[in-house]
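Example 4.3 (complexes with small molecules)
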Amino acid sequence: MRGSPRVALLAGGTGGAKLAAGFQAEIGERLSVIANPADDETVLGIDVSPDPDLITYWLAGQIDEERGWGIAGDTFTVFDRLGLLGAPDWFRISDRDLATCIYRSTFVSEGGTRTAAQAQIASALGVTAAVLPATETPIRTRIKTGAGWRTLQQYLIADGGSDPIEEVNVDGLEGATATPEVLSALTGADLIVIGPSNPVLSIGPILGMPDLRSAVESSSVPVIAVSPLIAGRSIKGPTEECLKALGRPSDASGIASLYEGLLTALVCDDDDPAEDSEDPPFYRGKTLMENASDRQDLARSLLQLLESLT
Ligand code: GDP
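Answer. The structure with guanosine-5'-diphosphate bound is encoded below.
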């Protein structure tokens, strides 16, 4: 893997995380995943960081692939007991996943950074790529629906995540800055990939930080986004609702419009309904990652595209 390109991948916890697993299989430690920390939530006093942890579980081969979150084969003994005691249990965390969250909470409360906590978690689970929370500043996504403002997890889990979205805000984003580790991953990369994640809820908070955005904008290496839509549809989560709230079409052109000024190319699904585009050019292919070989094939095709672009 030495000599392979260095890739910085911006990702949320599902589509982006799957592509991260494909890249890790191709380039190992030369991959840095810049993870969205705006979904973080405090649950019963414990610091939960869904996207960085989901990415870590995908990279460690421990994710519950069917459910798309949590650890495969895990139990819910602690949350069953908490529910019995009368604690709110709308956000249930399985036992081994809870251990990760307790580890992070303690690490941070004793003065450590989230970046260092995540690095230790990833390395303990045998992950070779770097998993970097985009910022140490607490930022939190809030969603406005007919029911008022909700935290992202309340909207997705307690409310079922299907109400029309009226507005999205990321609290704390104005004052947030990228970590030095993230900026150095971006400046050291041969390729920057914006993963097939929700462009508003997962990538929006990452690119919403002015220093991080400007590092991507001013980069001299190709910046390639992968659309999270398959045949114009989101296969998990409210990506279509987000595009609709912003008046964008649910196709590759809608995704590209949210990354205006950043992209060298956009990779989208063979069946995407958008017309072809020149700026940025659209490259069509199979972008649905149903298993490990699909994930690695997509990563490999992005590395081949990099070669043809440089
Ligand atoms: P979240 O943090 O869990 O919301 O996850 P992301 O933002 O990373 O991913 C959500 C998006 O991933 C959805 O729009 C899905 O359509 C997309 N997605 C999930 N699996 C795949 C896949 O295999 N291929 C592509 N192209 N997109 C995917």
